[in-house]
Amino acid sequence: MNMPDKPDTWAFAFAWFSQHFPLIGAALLSAAMAVLRITYGGGTRRQMLVEGAICGGLTLTIISGLEFFGLPQSMATFVGGWVGFLGVEKIRAIADRVTDFKLPSRNP
Question: Where exactly are the structural domains of the chain?
Fold first, then answer.
């Protein structure tokens, strides 16, 4: 691998990565946990890829809301691990229960 002519490029890339490592690490952990969970359960490759991608994105979404609830960004790895372990369907069921409790149905 050739180094670019400007060493500042590498310094900038490493600085950006070290600043965003908790977010990136949490998303990767979530995706890896989801893939392992699907593999353990006997799922297909398609299920592994889709579940991993959705869990990674969901982790990034949840982490962006930590500050809103007054929680530290250092909980990113914890959130990523649990999102990957629980999976999309379980988190959706939890979210449905919370929203049904907070926001009652409008249907008579």
Answer: 25-102
